[in-house]
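User: quick one, sequence for these tokens?
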């Protein structure tokens, strides 16, 4: 039997890496679009990489960019995919305020380029398309919890670009009968999450604080609430959406929302460190109040305990208004009833299990020689 062929844009990102692994395990041949970079940018998929001289490869990478129609059309024409997962995007909400035109081009028009390429290549009836839509579409939320019928109110150049991507996907489905679907995914995280998204920034910083490599982390809006799941669970939903007979749009979420403040508290607690938040607004801080020494020794290592003990009473979290956004999305919480009933999709990871996974990975990473040589124990004010 012929193997199914999938094309993943954004294969070098968090979701692309998990999805590629998932599809390869299912027996797919996976083609991925990666951008040319002056440095290696395939770290997340290096374990899947196969030398071009290997016969019958199941992972093949192509240089490309969502802003380049000719290149996308050629790749789709050459690979003739059964399924396209369009995951590529400038995905950082805060950065989209700095690069609004580029974001519109890649995240908005990029979707059109893929849909139109499929149509022009006469693949409309063969190729199924998954568009990476987002809970950011709900922005200034009009209804809680948010579901497929909740009106959109985007609050950033990123979300506005993704709004175009959402509707052009719906339009091509209705106009040309294409199997094109939106996954409206709420925030999902993992050890592979980009380092400047809030969860990973926190688990990295906590790992560094625990190991004596960093004194304090500086954060933006601590009161925002997010519905966080694990990326491994969310790529299963992407696949399930494209296996349905009929295309449709689905909210994918856990239904649990948590403030950034509580995420930080829970993450410290997971390694045995107690903190207390004090003050308000830009003067808010969190002070280190207690250590469960047995748990800390088990998670971070006994060697680091003495130094951390001396820090009880010191601030470990502060607020830097530079991380505030011109317009903020204050609350997200999703209702994934449609996905549960139609796709049979349920998340397996709880928020605590997600935090465990991320901290375990970051503590291991920070203990690596290369990190110690770069920052070491001497640079105590390091933050990003
Ligand atoms: P990510 O880690 O930032 O990955 C984004 C990927 O897109 C990377 O492979 C990146 O390449 C690539 N890319 C960026 N601009 C490109 C361009 N112009 N042309 C081609 N490739 C480009 O994001 P993610 O968390 O995996 O998210 C995947 C998708 O889901 C994105 O579209 C995101 O907007 C959307 N989404 C994410 C979440 C979430 O919580 N993670 C929730 C809802 C929707 P480089 O590696 O070279 O940078
Ligand atoms: N990044 C960041 N850094 N966010 C912070 C910080 C900080 O220091 N301090 C507070 N926050 C708040 C942000 O203001 C926001 O309210 C929340 O933490 C989450 O920020 P991010 O982790 O950057 O994610 P996001 O919700 O803006 O966007 C992510 O999720 C979307 C789905 O809802 C991205 O993955 C998007 O691509 C995705 O569409």
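Assistant:
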């Amino acid at each position: 039997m012929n193997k199914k062929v999938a094309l993943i844009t954004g294969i070098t990102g968090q979701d692309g890496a998990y999805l590629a692994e998932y599809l390869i395990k299912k027996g797919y041949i996976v083609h991925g679009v990666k951008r040319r970079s002056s440095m290696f940018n395939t770290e997340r998929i290096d374990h899947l990489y196969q030398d071009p001289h290997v016969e019958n490869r199941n992972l093949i990478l192509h240089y490309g960019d969502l802003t380049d129609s000719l290149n996308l059309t050629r790749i789709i024409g050459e690979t003739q995919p059964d399924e396209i997962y369009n995951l590529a995007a400038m995905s950082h909400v805060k950065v989209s305020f700095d690069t609004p035109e580029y974001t519109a081009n890649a995240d908005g028009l990029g979707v059109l380029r893929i849909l139109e390429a499929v149509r022009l290549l006469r693949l409309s009836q063969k190729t199924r398309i998954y568009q990476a839509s987002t809970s950011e579409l709900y922005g200034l939320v009009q209804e809680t919890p948010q579901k497929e019928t909740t009106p959109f109110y985007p609050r950033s150049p990123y979300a506005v670009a993704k709004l175009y991507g959402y509707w052009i996907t719906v339009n091509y489905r209705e106009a040309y009968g294409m199997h094109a679907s939106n996954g409206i995914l709420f925030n999902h995280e993992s050890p592979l999450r980009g380092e400047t998204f809030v969860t990973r920034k926190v688990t990295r910083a906590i790992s560094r604080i625990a190991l004596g490599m960093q004194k304090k982390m500086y954060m933006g809006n601590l009161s925002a609430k997010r519905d966080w799941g694990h990326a491994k669970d969310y790529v299963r939903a992407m696949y399930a959406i494209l296996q349905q007979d009929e295309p449709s749009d689905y909210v994918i979420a856990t239904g649990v929302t948590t403030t950034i403040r509580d995420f930080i508290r829970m993450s410290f607690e997971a390694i045995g460190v107690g903190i207390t938040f004090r003050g308000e607004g830009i003067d808010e801080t969190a002070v280190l109040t207690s250590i469960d020494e047995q748990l800390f020794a088990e998670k971070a290592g006994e060697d680091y305990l003495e130094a951390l003990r001396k820090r009880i009473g010191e601030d470990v979290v502060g607020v830097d208004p530079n991380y505030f956004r011109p317009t903020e999305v204050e609350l997200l919480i999703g209702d994934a009833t449609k996905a549960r009933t139609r796709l049979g999709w349920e998340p397996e990871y709880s928020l605590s299990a997600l935090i465990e996974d991320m901290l375990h990975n970051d503590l291991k990473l920070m203990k690596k020689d290369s990190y110690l040589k770069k920052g070491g124990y001497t640079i105590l004010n390091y933050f990003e």
